[in-house]
Amino acid sequence: MSFIDVHHHLIGKQHLAGMPDWSLELDKESMDRMGLTNALLSLPVAGAPEQTRGINDMIAGLAAKDPKRYGMLACLPSAYVDAALREIEYACDTLKADGFCMPSNASGIYIGDDRMDEILAELNRRSATVLLHPTKAGGEIPSLLVTDLSTYEYPFETSRAMIDLIYRGKIQKYPNIKWIVSHAGGVLPYIAYRVSTVAQENKAMPLTSDEVMSSLKTLYYDVALSTAPYVFATLKELFGTSHIVFGTDAPLRYEGPVTESIQQLKSYRGFDEGEKSKIMSENAKELFPRLR
């Protein structure tokens, strides 16, 4: 049975400090042990144009070594609009990328910002699939006891980026972009009702409450770090199993916890076998036709 990981990173030599050892061979061995058949390699960065081109060439080179197993999500120099447009063309036409991985903000510019419109318009024209990945918030973060941003700030960051994108009407303006939201949408599913009521109470909002909820339901939600039963139940209730995809956050999330997440999905009684098959691979195949 196919088991596709849409949220799967690589670690380049320049990123090894403080990171787990990584190579394509080690990754394939780990995937075999866990039962993952395919993965979309990505790096959630938005650097300078030259740096981004080098990263995309590196990802493409790694994926090309085992194309039956790996695909690639290209990154973009999102703070440099003209360069980003060139990189979309290069990634799609030359590297044959399966989609893109974009951080929630690039140098403090969030994906819903009007300065991103030319980039979104081109992604829309190409009917691109985009994995939205959180990064450090575009502002100061208060000093708290828990300093690991992945614990709480990244889910909040994912949510604020998507809420801004939705409130600005960009989901409706660029309907051909297929968005995958990392980590089950951050906190978005749990505040969806509250998010929709803002449009009802604030007459200056460009969207109605129904339009906000409709926009939320067009998104896809990966379950990296989000495989608890109550998360599954919430996603199914709000969005249906056709909009849930499997992700791991490997190798930043180690093999043991990922294996546990796989078992949590397989053993969850709220999904029937057909629904589990959708989440494990069929929904991803719709988003990434090459993996069919």
TrEMBL record:
It comes from the Bacteria. SUPFAM superfamilies: Metallo-dependent hydrolases. Keywords: Hydrolase, Lyase. This is Putative TIM-barrel fold metal-dependent hydrolase. It holds the Pfam family Amidohydro_2. It comes from Desulfosporosinus acidiphilus (strain DSM 22704 / JCM 16185 / SJ4). The keyword Lyase applies. Residues 4-289 form the Amidohydrolase-related domain. InterPro entries: ACMSD, Amidohydro-rel, Metal_Hydrolase.
